[in-house]
Amino acid sequence: MTISWTAAKDYEDILYHKADGIAKITINRPHKRNAFRPQTVFEMYEAFVDAREDPEIGVVLLTGAGPHHDGKYAFCAGGDQSIRDYAGYVGSDGIPRLNVLDLQRLIRSLPKVVIALVAGYAIGGGHVLHVICDLTIAADNAIFGQTGPKVGSFDGGLGSSYLARLVGPKKAKEIWFLCRQYSAQEALNMGLVNTVVPVDQLEAEGVRWAQEILQKSPLAIRCLKSAFNADCDGQAGIQELAGNATLLYYMNEESNEGKQAFLEKRPPNFRQFPWRP
Ligand SMILES: CC(C)(COP(=O)(O)OP(=O)(O)OC[C@H]1O[C@@H](n2cnc3c(N)ncnc32)[C@H](O)[C@@H]1OP(=O)(O)O)[C@@H](O)C(=O)NCCC(=O)NCCSC(=O)c1cc(O)c2ccccc2c1O
């Protein structure tokens, strides 16, 4: 399936494209297996906000540039260890950050579908990124795994608790405690990804899934996404789900009567609306 991407904005560490209701965010540091630094995360955050605010966009594809010169592919190898210091990953401003956690929350709360397209390595914080995406399409060369306990890190948030939701607590503990690498087929078998396709068909498959989703009701998809996340995300999840209820209520005559009455300085006539069973 071919699609004519248009560059939406130029960045240093990512590529950002749009076409036909789909946004594509590509981590573009293949020399580092697409490991992220704070700037990479800031740029991704900005692109995701842009996609959220654009009413034409219903699906975001998240992927990694590649292959690198050595022929290897990567979705993302997590935080750039060469700039990791006390208290986080240090950017050009000298401030250490773990700002990928902000990005994780943004992806989960985005009222649109986010699909990870994974070719090659999805490792460490890069693995967590695909885990929190709504759907994952893996290339047949994809390799999944956590490295935290090997490199002196851990993600005790969504990276572990939500992973356990996907693959079950025993498997999630195995992934974190042993730091092994898993093939695309193993990932499919444990429910970590939705499907596996040949690497040269990865983007086309992602576009196909996106186009199928775009035929569906935006409000239904929006409410379903927040419903899927609500219990895991606690009060923030309930806030999101309830926000969608308010949004729908604002689109309703009954809600409009309250606002109109206020503006017209008259008592509201809510007696015209039924108390539904
Ligand atoms: C991904 C690999 C398994 C690939 O191995 P391979 O042998 O194919 O390639 P190389 O190892 O030779 O790598 C090629 C080239 O890329 C550089 N590189 C790869 N990954 C990183 C990285 N993460 N950081 C920096 N640089 C990287 C590598 O140095 C090579 O460069 P040369 O100049 O030497 O050519 C393998 O590369 C690998 O295991 N990578 C490390 C994976 C890893 O441990 N990632 C970090 C985990 S911790 C994390 O991501 C993390 C981030 C957060 O922001 C958090 C926030 C809050 C809580 C937790 C967090 C967290 O855990």
Characterization of this structure:
The longest helix has 17 residues, at 234-250. The model has no long low-confidence stretch (mean pLDDT 98). β3, α1 and β4 form a beta-alpha-beta unit. With 277 residues, the protein is an alpha/beta fold. It is built from eleven helices and 14 strands. The termini are far apart. α3 (125-132) crosses α5. The chain has helices at 38-53, 100-109, 125-132, 148-151, 158-167, 169-178, 184-189, 202-214, 218-230, 234-250, 253-263; strands spanning 6-10, 14-19, 22-27, 59-64, 74-76, 84-85, 88-90, 96-97, 113-118, 121-123, 135-139, 143-145, 182-183, 195-197.
Number of strands: 14
Count of helical regions: 11
Biggest sheet character: 7 strands, mixed
Sheet/helix structural class: alpha/beta
Percent in strands: 15-25%
The 3D shape can be described as: globular
Unique ligands: ligand LTTK3YTO
Helix content: 40-55%
What number is the mean pLDDT?
A: 98
Strand order of the largest sheet: 1-2-3-4-9-11-14
State the end-to-end CA separation.
47 Å
Spans of at least 5 consecutive residues with low confidence: none
SSE pattern: EEEHEEEEEHEEHEEHHHEHEHHHH
Radius of gyration: 21 Å
GO biological process, one term: phylloquinone biosynthetic process
Function: Converts o-succinylbenzoyl-CoA (OSB-CoA) to 1,4-dihydroxy-2-naphthoyl-CoA (DHNA-CoA).
Cofactor: hydrogencarbonate
Binding site for hydrogencarbonate: 146-148
